[in-house]
Design goal:
Layout: E1 4-5, H1 8-18, H2 30-36, E2 40-41, H3 45-55, H4 61-70, E3 74-79, E4 83-88, H5 92-117, H6 124-138, H7 147-153, E5 160-163, E6 171-174, H8 176-185, E7 189-194, E8 203-207, H9 208-212, H10 221-236, H11 241-248, H12 252-261, E9 264-269, E10 272-277, E11 291-294, H13 308-311, H14 315-318, E12 328-331, E13 334-341, E14 347-351, H15 356-374, H16 386-392, E15 403-404
Parallel strand pairs: 1-9, 14-15
Antiparallel strand pairs: 2-4, 3-4, 5-6, 7-8, 9-10, 11-12, 12-13, 13-14
Length: 405
């Protein structure tokens, strides 16, 4: 059987509807948006809300707050690539087995090594187990506490390591956040209430069991990886082995084993071998042209390792040196620019190419819609991109000039 070719146009049509970005295919609510994307990227606190705004009509921040902190149907959890995501609660078992456990093991090894290097204890594993026990005891019974509060009451946790000794950039790094990272990735503690607005991350911690009413159910690692790969293909497919490996933060061996266990078909992605689920090979109906503004680290922007088909030549402008994406402006399934905020908080559009009168009009309307929703509240990306830095330095922009190119 001939291998079917899937071009960039078809991939963009899939993205429009599956990622809930097309106006006719929005998510019902924040939980539906997160479920539809597998998860939402949670490193930038504001981006979680802005990613939901882009996918849910009439979205308000309290809707996501309720899902995170009252209903707890969404949970912040460390997983792929040592990154915090917002997951639907029901998929935590496969996330823990297929991604988080791998992160936890790597972080545990590094903490153990640094504890011994710092001279805190001759047996770093023993030190970590002991301090972890103190933390879990302090958070028992449903108690919530911040990292600072835990350091203040657990002497063993109030330790640090020197780095860059003798260098101008040197300093001391506390172990408390790293211990909490290990416990979080192991599924033992969870980010609970946030002691700040939706734009900042000041989490209190508690035990996973008390927050969710039970611990994360055990799952076999291979089953977890397979479930995550299947979920990725359902939302982001088609994609290459390199795409899946990068997103999952795993190995090619694990990815290939999962693909072998799944019912998939091979497709041609402009000369590269890609994969689709066997029940998902039908070509989607063409979508009307659409535009959207996405925040930094949005799951769509960060969904693939190989991005030329939607990013073009703009990587140097819109990604930092570590591969973190900034805010993006999309027209008909590809990135055509960015958006930013002036000193007054006004949302401004910056296009990197001519997309025609109709495309510009749609994106200007989206900028006005986001401007109204934010109401002058400024959001700051944690990882500014080269173009973001350039635009931030711009001055004296006319109040009526919402867009530039």
């Amino acid at each position: 059987m001939a291998v079917r070719r899937i071009d960039a146009t078809e991939r963009r049509a899939r993205l429009a509807t599956r990622h809930r970005l097309h106006p006719g295919h929005r998510a019902a609510d924040a939980v539906d948006a997160a479920t539809g994307m597998v998860c939402l990227h949670g490193t930038d606190p504001a981006s979680v809300y802005l990613s939901a705004w882009a996918r849910v009509d009439d979205f308000v921040t309290t809707d996501l707050d309720r899902a995170l902190y009252t209903d707890r149907s969404l949970v912040k959890h460390m997983a792929m690539r040592r990154t915090v995501f917002v997951f639907p609660r029901e998929i935590l078992p496969v996330v823990q087995a297929g991604a988080s456990a791998r992160v936890a093991a790597a972080q545990r090894r590094q903490v153990v090594k640094d504890v011994e290097k710092a001279g805190l204890h001759g047996d770093g594993e023993q030190w970590l187990d002991e301090v972890s026990g103190h933390v879990l005891q302090a958070l028992s019974g449903g108690r919530e506490a911040t990292s600072s509060e835990l350091r203040a009451e657990i002497p063993l946790l109030d330790a640090s390591i020197d780095y860059g000794i003798g260098k101008s950039w040197g300093g001391r790094v506390p172990f408390a956040p790293r211990v909490l990272t290990v416990l979080s990735a192991e599924g033992k503690v969870v980010r609970a209430s946030n002691n700040g607005s939706w734009r900042v991350s000041r989490p209190a911690w508690t035990s996973t069991e008390s927050w969710l009413g039970a611990g994360i159910a055990p799952c076999d690692e291979a089953d977890g990886v397979r479930a995550l790969v299947e979920s990725w293909l359902r939302v982001f497919g088609p994609g290459t082995e390199a795409d899946i490996k990068w997103w999952l933060g795993s190995t090619l061996t694990a990815v290939r084993a999962a693909l072998a266990d799944l019912d998939v078909v091979e497709v041609d992605l402009d000369g590269r071998s890609g994969y689709l689920l066997a029940d998902d090979v039908e070509e989607p109906a063409p979508a009307d042209p659409w535009g959207v503004l996405l925040p930094s680290l949005d799951p769509t922007v960060m969904g693939w390792a190989e991005r030329d088909w939607y990013l073009g030549s703009y990587k140097g402008d819109l990604f930092d040196s570590n591969g973190n994406a900034g805010p993006t402006a999309w027209w008909d399934g590809r990135i055509v620019g960015t958006w930013w905020q002036s000193d007054s908080g006004s949302v401004e559009l910056h296009l990197l190419e001519d997309i025609g009168v109709d495309g510009r009009a749609v994106l200007e309307q989206e900028a006005a819609r986001l401007d109204e929703w934010l109401g002058g509240v400024k959001v700051t990306a944690r990882f500014p991109t080269p173009l973001a830095k350039e635009l931030a330095a711009a001055t004296d922009r006319a109040p009526s000039d919402r867009s530039s190119s």
